[in-house]
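lol ok so funny story. i was supposed to be doing the assay writeup but got distracted and ended up predicting the structure for this chain instead. priorities right. anyway since i did it might as well share w the group, maybe its usefull for someone
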Amino acid sequence: MGHELPRGHEFPRFDDSYRQRWVSAGLWADQTLHDLFDETVAERPDAVAVTTRDRRMTFAEYKAESDALAAGLLLAGVERGDIVAVQLPNWIEFCLLQIALSRIGAVIQPTHCVFRERELRSLLGFCDTDFVVVPDSFEGHGYANAVRNIRDDLPRLRKLIVARGDTSGGEGEAGLETLIDEGGRDLERLEGVTTDPDDVFYLNFTSGTEGNPKGFLHTHNTLISTFKNMSQALANLDPEIVNLTCSPMTHSFGHFTTYQCALAGIPMVLVDRYRPGDVLELIEQERATSISGTPAHLIGILHHPDFESVDTSSVKSVSVGGARSSPELMETLEAVWGVRSANTYGMGENIIHTRTMPWDPEDKATESVGRPLFGAELKIADPADHARELPPGEVGDIMFRGPTLFVAYHKQPELTAATRTDDGWFVTGDRGYVDDEGYLYFAGRAKEVINRGGTKIYPKAVEDLLVEHADIEEAAVVGMPDERLGERVCAYVVTRNGATADVEELRSFFAEQKAMKYLAPEAIVVVDELPMTPTGKIAKSALVEDAAERVRAHGEAMRGKA
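and the output, tada:
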């Protein structure tokens, strides 16, 4: 199968004045991921870099295999600027590809393992993806065959690369292990390759909780400086750190967590599939000191029936990302491990905007999402006029400006322009407010705000109150269509030990908490589990659709229904 479209992608670049601003400020290191990785390897070649259930890989081995893979990818036809989709679990091969693709100037496109033929056809077609790397099979699904089934619909796709399995070896296919073997015998190919810190090298998509995912593009400069600083700070705080992340490397949170290994030499334990019992076993076995994941991941670990029988005393720090922690989860983490998890606010487009610190006062640490980091600027703007900054205490649009801002949305210049103001502010699409000390308080997505007869209700405030109730373990709140008021508050809850949830009882509970009466849910739906996006966030769009369908089916009877 030969490719039928012209090669090369026209990626946007920041202009020279923008570039000079951050380089001069010392906020862009002007180095690539593989440059800094090579420095790490030189410092600790024999130290363990990556651990899985089957293998321990040293930094020297990490470099040797990633170099061989880089040369093999060149042999397979991958060139600078090509987009390479990687649909792999958290395997060592994913780590090798991060460095190898950086070294040859290609763009990595992490692709969620839950995607099947329908989603792949749409995503790879939209991106004009040049190469795709998949397992032969994993967890009972034939990934390679799925790509083969849609090849005719993807004229841009030049080659399928298969990891851990058989490949036809014919035109248009290659085995990843074969590429490593062949590349290891032809490393001279790497000598003429040039890359640039301003090259786009990362393409990923927003989680699409609103049903409209967008592909954001990052360069080495927009990503690496921040993660180098953060990773080195973590290593300095705990010289014996061993990191275990539950999040998939196909999600930015999990992907960037692995940079701690490449940039600061922090050993990492890979979890190829999230199963709370397996994670607990690995924490005990590898004496992991730092664990990370979404709130859902951490809740699954803490509530696992075997938790008390497993030794997790090695844990010294916990990083929760992908979604904001509830105060209850933070209190549990502190009670169990004596750690204060940081609340971090950011997104794929700007990476990290604000973060709480260990020395922050208790109320700031649990209720806010911290203050700006690493040269980031924060503004709360009037939703009707982004030029007008709102005073402390007023909820408005959260605006970002800083060195980690993405270059653009892939193939969506109009959307990119719509999210940027003339003076360089990025419109996050989130709502919040700051206090007098500059701490940011997150209210929710602008599109998730419930308008109940003109009263604006932020789902986050309702959800935080719900999980304080003794019978409620998890909660998600959306607007339920209402002919008279426009919307009412509808709560989807997971209860503890099969408990029921009653609207009147919850209304009394909210009153006891001195909450505005309109915050109390007017409809309750008890579910076994909340729907999740591939990135571990609650799929609010699915709940919005469900609430609307329930109203269509039950009308007024829906109100108060459990």
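The mean pLDDT is 90. The longest strand covers residues 472-482.
back to the writeup now i swear
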